[in-house]
Amino acid sequence: MKTSEMFLKEMKAEAANTRKLLALVPFEKGDYKPHEKSMPMLKLATHVAEITGWWKETLLTDELDFAKGGGTPNVYNSTEDILAKHDDLVAKAEVILSEINEEEFDKNWTMRNGDYIILTAPKREVARTWCLNHLYHHRAQLSVYLRLLDIPIPGMYGPTADM
């Protein structure tokens, strides 16, 4: 199985799991945070929804430079808006992973802030770490927020205590 096919299969399965959690985010409790050092739930949910957009940054460019600015943060007005963004980014990632040249995964990719290099690694490692593992990390955080608000957590890999 090609690298692109492997990532596509995993990304699609995990996108469905991510969507299950994002659909449960109570927008009216967007400022909720379980600890003063935690990010607010709406910011976390937005981050979770937008991570899938990193496939574009990782595979279609050779670097991300924070010093060049990231534009204006997206503003969402409802949980449905967050879901729509997530769905749009998943569709775009599917196209990228379906069309990418396999050799692209061996090229180095750099994350920097101007002259300060944060990391340089082959795109296959960046895809695993930043496009997938990073998503799983923040999705798990979101599930804790929901649990603390007594919102039943759906099964992703099997049943949960709620379902």
- Sheet with most strands: 3 strands, mixed
Please trace the helix and strand order, writing H or E for each element: HHHEHEEH
Strand order of the largest sheet: 1-2-3
Number of helices: 5
Mass-distribution shape: globular
What fraction, in percent, of the residue positions are helical? Answer: 40-55%
CATH superfamily: dinb family like domain
Outline the structure in words:
A hairpin with a 2-residue loop joins strand 2 and strand 3. The chain has one domain (3-148): dinb family like domain (Four Helix Bundle (Hemerythrin (Met), subunit A)), CATH 1.20.120. The model has no long low-confidence stretch (mean pLDDT 95). The protein has five helices and three strands, in the order αααβαββα. It has a three-stranded mixed sheet. The longest helix has 26 residues, at 123-148. Helix 2 runs parallel beside helix 4 (79-99) and helix 3 runs parallel beside helix 4. The termini are far apart. The chain is mainly alpha-helical. The chain has helices at residues 3-22, 41-50, 54-60, 79-99, 123-148, and strands at residues 63-65, 108-113, 116-122.
